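Task 17 of the worksheet. Students: predict the tertiary structure of the chain below and write it out as C-alpha cells. Keep your answer in the requested format; marks are given for formatting as well as content.
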Amino acid sequence: MSYKVLIIEDDPMVAMINEQYATKNPNFVSAGICRNGKDALEFLSKNKVDLVVLDVYMPYMDGVETLKKIREQNIQTEVIMVTAANDTATLEKTMNLGVVDYLVKPFAMERFQVALEKFAAKAEALSGKKGGSLDQSSIDTILSGTAASQKSAAASGNPADDSLARPAYPKGIQKQTLENIKAWFDKNPKWQRGDIVAQKLGLSVVTVRHYLNYLVQIHALTETIDYETGGRPSMLYKKN
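Model answer:
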C-alpha cells in the first residue's frame, strides 16, 4: 500500500529533507510541499492526503492553528507534528487534537521513520476493519503511542526493569504476555523482527507491535530500521 504524505514547512531546506526522509520509505509518496498553513488547508481541500508532516512555527498560520482547522473542517488525514521547541503547552495542545507522533528538531532520519511506522501500523489496523468490528489487539495498536500511554510510562519515574515489575500496566498490556515477550528477548539478544517474535510466540503481529512499542517507550528495548530487506523497511528490536 502507498500512502500520500504532505510536508508543511516554511524552511525550504528542511521541507526538502523531510520529503526525502518520507520517500525513503517505499510505502510513502510525496503529495507535495506547502510553505504555510493557509496554503496547506487550500491544498487539502482539493487533494486526498493520508498523512501530514506539520511544522509548528510558520508564518500566516502556525501548525497548532492549522491542526485545529484540519480537525474543524473534518479533513481526513493523520498528522505528525514537528517543532524546534520541546514545550509542554504545545505538546498538550497537539496531543489533544490527535497526532500520530511528535518530533522535536533536530531529529534523525531513523526517528522520522519510526513516526512513519507508527502511522502505518494504525492505518493497517484500521484498513482491514472497515465495515466490521475491531478486536482488542487492533484497538490497542490504534491507540498505542498516545499521550495516555506516554504519561503512564513517564509517571513511573523508574528504570525499565522496575517499570516492567509494576502490577499496573497501560491499557492493552497483559502481564503474562509482556513477560513472555521479555523472556524471548532475554534468550535472543540479537536484533529481532516483530513478525518473527509474533510467529515464535503464537501471537498476532498487531499485538506484538503494540507490546514492542510499549517496551521501547519504557526503554526496555531499543529499536532501529532495517533497510536491507529488498522491499519495505522493517523495524528491528533488541534488549537494552
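Marker's comment: Confidence is low (pLDDT under 50) at residues 145-167. The CA atoms of residues 146 and 217 lie 11 Å apart.
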